[in-house]
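Reopening this one. Same input as before:
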Amino acid sequence: MNPVLKPTRLQVFSFIASMPVIDVVLNYVLYEERLFHDGKIWLFSFPLIYLVGIGSWRLQVGIQNWIHYKFEGLKQTRKRIVLLAALIIPVMSASVIAILLAYDYFSILGYRLKPDDIQYILLVGFGVNLIFVTLYEVDYVIERVKETVVEKESLQQQALQNEFDMLKNQVNPHFLFNCFNTLSSLISENKERAETFLNELSKVYRYLLRNNEDGMSTVENEIKFIRSYYDLLKTRHGDALQLTVDIDKRYFPYLLPSLTLQLLIENVVKHNQLSKTHPLVIEIFTTAGNQLVVNNNLQRRTLKVPSNRVGLENIKAKYEILKQKGFQVMEDGKNFTVVLPLIWNNLNEKGTKILKEFKTA
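Same output, byte for byte:
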């Protein structure tokens, strides 16, 4: 059977439920009160009309589904309705009139055609078709709307993924460039510190590359990494930069997008002044409701640093791809705060699922 013309589940169920009622009504038009006391009508006429009804219904459903296939767009609804009226009404009319003429010609159970019978049976057929054709069309439109919404979400998802890929490719070179600047300064000032810095940098960068590939990381691993990253920053800025970390250990298995903390800290250092007398203080802590907070005191640079907001937009894009709500950025004049929702890693089940969705989004 051509899948285009195949009846839908709704079409099959509605026919099975309604055809016995339609059959009774048509037999009443044909035989009137005899229907209630003549068993031959139930034994012979009832099955016969049911079989004719199957053929007529199948033809009408095929026509309607073919029209849906040829004119499937929501904007083509009016055209579909016009075609349905132009094709299905004649088919329905021909079917019911054929029943009357055949019953009269063969005098089935003594039936003789009466002028009013054509009017009544056409009225019944039209009413039934109006109800069910409308029902099928509404069902079709609803399904198309659902598909349109899914397609729209898919396109948005793809756009976010493309944006994320672009942002991700900008993060690593940016981070490496800053580190090389620091290393260049240290080489001329203190070669031993430069060597230590280079060793730490190699460790940090290996982690950065590996976890940027994975997409997701546990809170525990991110905190370990951020401590190493802080050591690099501390080498250059000394006491002008301070970091405090207060993480409830029960959140260690939770997940968050990889390198989120590194991006945030890099953003803080980039846009704020650092001095020993007025150190830049960064706080990382967890709160109730599965949230991790990164907060810093605001010490805006006098000369604003050019910004393409790669860090914050990257993090926002990651959470949008994961469909995780709760990412917030707040500023009150004294502090700049970012709230990160933590994702439960259910013994590598849900967490693995989230990781796979992130990779394939």
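So the earlier flakiness isn't reproducible anymore. For the record, The chain has two domains: 9-149, 190-360.
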